[in-house]
Write a structure and sequence with these properties.
The complex is a heterodimer of chains A (about 200) and B (about 650).
Chain A lengths: L1 E7 L13 H30 L13 H25 L3 H25 L11 H31 L7 H30 L4
Chain B lengths: L1 H12 L13 H11 L5 H7 L3 H30 L9 H35 L8 H23 L24 H29 L12 H32 L13 H35 L6 H14 L15 H13 L1 H16 L7 H23 L2 H7 L3 H31 L5 H27 L16 H31 L37 H4 L3 E6 L7 E5 L6 E6 L6 H15 L5 H18 L10
Antiparallel strand pairs in B: 2-3
Helix pairs in contact in B: 4-5, 4-6, 4-17, 5-6, 5-7, 5-9, 6-7, 6-19, 7-8, 8-9, 8-10, 9-12, 9-15, 10-12, 13-15, 13-16, 15-16, 16-17, 19-20
The chains are: A mainly alpha (about 200), B mainly alpha (about 650).
Chain lengths: ~200, ~650
């Protein structure tokens, strides 16, 4: 078969940010499937709540303090998160390095606070179905927090090495920002479900 | 993107574009460079570390068919037992394991993976690129899948085979009644296969969205690719349901959570809701790609473009959406509120509309063409006949009163085998005959193919049609025997004998493949005179698929320009690179580096698989397993000085 060259792509860059990058779409797809998992777990929460005569079952409503503290920290982290994104898009490696350190801390602090959050539920996972589902929801979110903090730490270390100088790494930083937004947004929803549904 | 512009300016100052490009380079050198850049090393390491979508896709297909053979043999064993009333050949405990392993394997280890396997192999070729978007994720998905499948079958060999049916209902599978670790193996096998299926879905979406040949706008995407794209979205939103529910099941059994314990505020029907929220879309995860096969095979063998392209695409999308609104029709016998049941009856009937539109489009395509009755077309015609019967009984059981009569009887067994075998396996076999020459370079024997088709078509109908009658007579499914006085003996004997005809048909299928691999006629690039891009590659395609990536100017590119292929220039040939474009119009945006071979997907899969396996026995496995899993993933993602990182 004869070839007829019609498009020249030699001038195109090898990476870009946001929807131009295949990795962004991959991240979005993972967010979508994880959001589906969250939605089904939340659906289960309300399904069990509707069946129960009293909700929460045989337990007081969970203490607000640790969960609310995490909510505040996570919401506040959106600001440095998006500043890091801007720096990455500007290819400002020095600032990105500093920003990644801040985001690492912003990820670890809520994980530490979460140590107090499980006891604040005032119920164990094996007491009844209410205990099971709130532990499930909280663990699901904790696993997301852990994963993204792990990812942030690895990326932060990478940015301090020679390999961090490749432009593509900055696009990776931007995708990490995108995923962190999802971790924050999912907590807003879960926080309302876990802490305010029992108070309604 | 001021940053990117600045980077580009720096690069030009450094002496222009990096790397060797495919512009003004002779064909022999071009192929030599590409073969080097995209090679899979020889030997065991290469076999384990490859990220070539064709090698992985092929491996997936072979593995899926091996599981198919295991599941098929379990079915034969069941037919051996049921051939006579009150037979004592297989006891109830083994029988329970056999039907569970049969259903579980067919659904989780054969049907879904084999459909994804074809997508993994074909999509990059059909959209004119060199690999899937995330090649290492693809390799990882295969290793996870195969380890999950091996795990449940090894457990079966040690008399720990799952035995609560392929949908593993609680309380039968729960902590009170589930025997030993049997349901736990089932639940963890689900986790493995769903991780694998979700990984493939993500990479298919990103590949189809971003890596299509320039010019392949949304309305020029081959219908098969549309079908797997829709399927990938269905997987994305359906599979998490079974992961959530199987995790809850294992938690109930391992750490005494109470999700399904009605004495502690849980609910057994919760399991059914979550399972079928996945389970019904699952049917369409299998069926939608099969319709894609039909839409790919038909135009080639009736020698005209498919009728109603837009109608078929919209039907596929509609089926994808509607598949999420049907799950309760599996639960009509559970005493749900009647208003809810009516809603699900209506939506179950509604999905017949887009399915019907597709069938009418195919009939119109045949009507307006000149059919060539080669084996792939025979299987397509067999599909249309069989699937219509399965669809009609589907409309019947969508009605609550009728469903209550035939629920858990052989009528339902007949119905879903007509839908799944007729709707998915027939097109799949047609697809094997159709693409075998592309994959291997050799044609399958047409003579054996015709015999193969007729044995399977006749054997299938003789085996499964009488089950409708048995069901209406009241024979329940999943019983290991039945009394002599029931009068079901002669029909059961007929079914068991007919299943041997079906078995012979499949034996011919595998025999044909084995013989043709060695002795089949050489195929050439495009033996069927087909219109889509995969036929522009050599048979079998080289590691880099196309020496120059193609550009698309027509929905049927090889029919529009049979002798000339419009192509792209300017890609690197000394490093792995593909073209990334806009989602709707496929306008080139990037030269995207493509990941090289790596052993880390395999090692990560071993770490993840080991963690899943150990968590059957102790919850602490999740904590300790996190260490090797993290090491695996970090080593996988850590850049290793690829040439494209210089840019």
């Amino acid at each position: 078969m004869k070839k007829r060259p019609v498009v020249d792509v030699s001038h195109l860059p090898t990476y870009d940010f946001g929807a131009a990058s295949p990795m962004w779409w991959g991240t979005l797809a993972f967010i979508a499937l994880e959001a589906a998992g969250f939605a089904l777990a939340i659906g289960t929460y309300f399904y069990l709540a509707v069946l129960a005569q009293h909700w929460p079952i045989a337990a007081p409503a969970p203490d607000l303090a640790p969960g609310t503290a995490i909510l505040i920290i996570l919401l506040a982290s959106i600001v440095p998160n998006h500043i890091v994104d801007r720096w990455a898009r500007q290819h400002n490696l020095q600032k990105v390095r500093g920003g990644m350190v801040i985001m690492t801390i912003a990820g670890i602090v809520p994980l530490i606070v979460r140590i107090w959050e499980f006891p604040a539920l005032h119920i164990s996972w094996d007491q009844n179905a209410y205990g099971s589902i709130v532990w499930f929801l909280l663990s699901l979110h904790t696993s997301h927090l852990l994963t993204d903090v792990g990812d942030t730490i690895v990326l932060a270390v990478l940015m301090f090495t020679q390999k961090g100088k490749a432009g593509r790494r900055l696009s990776d930083v931007s995708d990490n920002v995108f995923y962190w937004d999802f971790v924050v947004a999912s907590w807003v929803v879960l926080y309302l479900v876990i802490y305010w549904t029992p108070r309604m | 993107m001021s940053g990117i512009r600045q980077k580009k300016a720096e690069r030009i100052q450094e002496g222009g574009p990096k790397g060797i490009r495919d512009t003004s380079i002779d064909e022999a050198r071009l192929r030599a460079f590409l073969a080097h850049a995209w090679q899979t090393p020889k030997g065991l390491y290469g076999w384990l570390a490859t990220v070539d979508h064709k090698l992985i896709g092929r491996r997936y297909v072979v593995t899926a068919f091996l599981f198919f053979i295991f599941a098929g043999l379990s079915a034969l064993a069941m037919r051996f037992q049921l051939a006579a009333p009150e037979a004592g050949r297989i006891g109830p405990d083994l029988y329970n394991q056999l039907f569970t392993m049969h259903g579980t394997t067919m659904m989780f280890l054969f049907a879904v993976p084999v459909m994804e396997a074809f997508a993994v192999y074909l999509v990059p070729l059909m959209i004119g690129t060199r690999n899937v978007a995330f090649p290492r994720l693809n390799a990882f998905s295969y290793w996870i899948y195969v380890s999950g499948g091996m795990m449940i079958w090894i457990a079966f060999a040690f008399n720990t085979g799952a035995d609560a049916g392929w949908f593993s209902y609680v309380p039968l599978a729960g902590p009170d009644y589930g025997i030993g670790k049997r349901p736990d193996f089932w639940a963890q096998m689900v986790t493995y296969t769903e991780v694998s299926a979700l990984a493939v879905a993500v990479e298919i979406i990103a590949t189809v969205f971003k890596q299509r040949a320039p010019g392949m706008t949304l309305d020029r995407i081959p219908l098969y690719v549309w079908s797997v794209l829709v399927t990938a979205f269905v997987i994305l939103f359906a599979m998490p349901a079974v992961m959530v529910s199987s995790t809850m099941l294992i938690l109930d059994r391992l750490v005494a959570t109470k999700f399904f314990d009605s004495a502690a505020g849980g609910d057994v029907l919760l399991w059914q809701h979550l399972f079928w929220f996945f389970g019904h879309p699952e049917v369409y995860i299998i069926f939608i790609p099969a319709t894609g096969f039909v839409s790919a095979i038909l135009p080639t063998f009736v020698r005209r473009p498919v009728f109603g392209y837009l109608g078929i695409v919209l039907s596929l999308i509609a089926i994808g959406f509607l598949s999420f609104g049907l799950w309760v029709h599996h639960m009509f016998a559970t005493g749900l509120p009647q208003l809810g049941e009516s809603f699900f009856t209506a939506s179950s009937m509604m999905i017949a509309i887009p399915s019907g539109i597709q069938i009418f489009c195919w009939i119109a395509t045949i009507w307006g063409g000149k059919p060539i009755f080669a084996t792939p077309l025979l299987f397509v015609l067999g599909f249309i006949f069989t699937f219509v019967i399965g669809g009609l009984t589907g409309v019947m059981v969508a009605s609550v009163p009728l469903d209550l009569q035939v629920h858990d009887t052989y009528f339902v067994v007949a119905h879903f085998h007509y839908v799944l075998v007729g709707g998915a396996v027939f097109p799949l076999l047609g697809a094997v005959y159709y693409w075998f020459p592309k994959v291997t370079g050799r044609l399958l024997s047409e003579r054996l193919g015709h015999w193969n088709f007729w044995f399977i078509f006749v054997g299938f109908n003789l085996t499964f049609f009488p089950m409708h009658i048995l069901g209406l007579q009241g024979m329940p499914r999943r019983v290991y025997t039945y009394p002599l006085e029931s009068g079901w003996g002669s029909v059961n004997l007929f079914i068991s004998l007919s299943s041997l005809v079906l078995f012979a048909g499949f034996a011919l299928f595998f025999l044909n493949m084995l013989l043709s691999l060695r002795n089949g006629h050489l195929a050439g690039d495009n033996p069927w005179g087909a219109s889509t891009l995969e036929w522009a590659a050599t048979s079998p395609p080289p590691s880099y698929n196309f020496p120059h990536l193609p550009v698309v100017t027509h929905r049927d590119p090889l029919w529009a320009e049979p002798d000339t292929l419009p192509v792209i220039e300017g890609l690197r040939v000394d490093a792995r690179e593909v073209v990334g474009g806009t989602v709707a119009d496929a306008v080139p945006q990037l030269r995207v580096p493509s990941a090289d071979n790596s052993i880390w997907p395999l090692l990560s899969a071993i770490a993840v698989g080991g963690t899943f396996f150990a968590s059957i026995y102790t919850p602490w496995a999740v904590v300790w397993g996190a260490i090797p899993v993290s090491i695996g993933f970090i080593c996988w993602f850590w850049p290793k000085g690829e040439p494209e990182d210089e840019e």
